[in-house]
């Protein structure tokens, strides 16, 4: 029954096109196998033809008279359809009927005596090809949004992918890269600043993809924002179909940018693709894949395998839209305990922070391993951890290797089995926020975490409406962050950051510490 319900989701448009809303409704309302007798016979035939995996097509194909030698199930189903249609045309001879009956009994056992032929309404059985609303290619669900990106790239030279965090933008960019490589394009990703992008392609077809152009969490490129915008405007003006550019940006990063800059390319609706909306069919396929490769993959009796899609949909209705549904179902597929609390969907960051806080109290080694991986972004298990890792509860390489297997829900292991990183930036942000709430761990965070992450997430206490993915820097931490900026000479990178706005208390602290240490920093006025 569950499979039939999935069919109604995946083939909804095609079923409605050929059979109408009423028949779709009757299919959706099936509660037991006894309800099958109420289904339209043409609908049943076409479900057998298009959907049932154990029914292979006749050798001559659907819609044609099967050969005598073809005694497959699909061929017999097609014979029954053709016999019935001839009967509707007043034919009285039904060849092969006895042989088909015997084969059906051999396949399925005795047929119930309750089955009666009702010919009061001789309606022919129609044959249609039903098409699913979306397809899967190499485990990737080809959503309408991904197809839109491909279609726009055919006629334009720039595409902007916008959506909430966790809507599948990064997955889309990886697919676009693979698609263009197969078509003999030279493909490159943003490894350094986009300001170094060469717009002259010299006759070589080039695709440039940039994920999180202005930052993973928030605007991480304050010092380069103006230069990046100039590059975008140059690309927009330079109509060259041998250069294609695709870049992705989170909704909340875009909103922060819009407060100061009105970037022209964002206003061009012809090249902007919104990833926030998913059809039920797309969501179902994504969930099924995540369920197959999540926690349930190692536990065939896991209760989450049997969770109804409608229940998942109802849970996702609590999503306020600050996160994409795919990241929520990914979390549910790996941490089912989140799914048991429907209200958790309203504030998943808070729920994750609670999980991390409990981990810190109950299994500190696991927490410290996660924290270390967040600090360095990627860790190679074949190499020793950084020397300073000992500050995290005496963490060492042995401890990391010992605990990796217990962190499947959070850590992603690359194909070689040695390089590990946190599965998604949402998990990293929640961990960052959890650390920032502890005086002990925020000190270590500001001292050792990748500075790009600190730059994007941290905001001054004067910030109004800081947003979902910001953390306010408490005054008690000014000295620690100022020391790191001075020690690593990071002022130039941070000079346009809100922390260093005029009359900012943090700016004053940084300037005072530099003077006390006999160091001079160039304070840039805006």
TrEMBL record:
InterPro entries the UniProt entry points to: HEPN_DZIP3, nSTAND3, P-loop_NTPase
DZIP3-like HEPN domain span: 34-87
Residue ranges annotated for the Novel STAND NTPase domain, each copy included: 141-288
Domain of life: Eukaryota
Identification of the protein by name: DZIP3-like HEPN domain-containing protein
Species whose genome carries this gene: Magallana gigas (Pacific oyster)
